[in-house]
Amino acid sequence: MNRDDPEGAIAQAAKACSNWGRWGEDDRIGTLNFLDDAKRREGAALVRRGASFSLSQRFDMEGPQNGWRRRTNPVHTMLDTGADAALGNQGFPHGLGGADDVIAMPLQCSTQWDGLGHIFDHGRAWNGRDAATTVTSAGDLVTGIEHMAPYVAGRGVLLDVGRVVGEDGELPDGFAVTEEHLAATVAAHGVAVGRGDLVVVRTGQLSRVRRAGWGDYAGGPAPGLSFTTAGWLHCTEIAAIATDTWGFEVRPNEFDHAFQPLHQVVIPHMGLLIGEMWDPDALAADCADDGVYEFWLTAAPLPITGAVGSPVNPIAVK
């Protein structure tokens, strides 16, 4: 890998890992095509104990965002409160009162999915479409995340790379997770990863910032997937992958003068669904305790018409 030539490496990986046309020219869901009915039945059959785990961070004003690219933390406002009810200001009959609220937030400010309209490569969106006519001021007119909403449920697999490779269960910032690290984690967990799986990678960075404060969690240095894992992500035919970091891939990125080069390959060329800022810590502790790293996972995006990302509350059930 030539650190001085990110554009050449991106072009080479994009060509090798392209899924353009694989599911037809009208495809809107990319690698979620790998997650079929049989794979969902396989995932559902993994439920044994009924123990459930939310893999979402909290959505509140204490969240990780620092204003980069106008991304802010959620702002929660009450429209009606118990005080309004007690004072009789709501106008309801026979003593009825209620509370109501509203939230304003960027769709990718906390635990979320990157949709297929989120990243482009030289003006091309997923499946080779023209980015200018695919995603406009009216939203993603073709691959809006609402098209994915029915499909993201199936066999989940946790790869706790932080516990297997790191010290004290965590990888340091800037640690590039390679295919070899992923393979070592798969072997250590005694679990297979393959077609149609929903993969959750724990680096341990979220555990660390919980102790030390958010700092530069949103956009700063982080462990993450190496650019060299593009081939693994492609050949395994997984349906989606999520991490406990802000940006999925290692930061600083492995090339000089580059920004999120792995995104530039896997979203517009591979059509891979990527999750970021997930919270797998409670699930990881349970997996380490019982030695079972596969589970039923449901993680549907909100069907927001034309959105290029969505908040999500992933639920793993074992």
Automatic annotation (TrEMBL):
- Could you tell me the EC number(s) of this protein? 3.5.-.-
Q: Which Pfam families match?
A: Cyclase
Q: Which GO terms describe its molecular function?
A: arylformamidase activity
Q: Indicate the enzyme's highest-level EC class.
A: hydrolase
Task: Classify the source by domain of life.
Answer: Bacteria
Q: What are the record keywords, sorted?
A: Hydrolase
Q: Which SUPFAM superfamilies match?
A: Putative cyclase (SSF102198)
Q: Which GO terms describe its biological process?
A: L-tryptophan catabolic process to kynurenine
Q: Which InterPro entries match?
A: KFase/CYL, KFase_sf
* Protein name from the UniProt record: Cyclase family protein
**Lineage, uppermost ranks:** Bacteria, Bacillati, Actinomycetota, Actinomycetes, Kitasatosporales
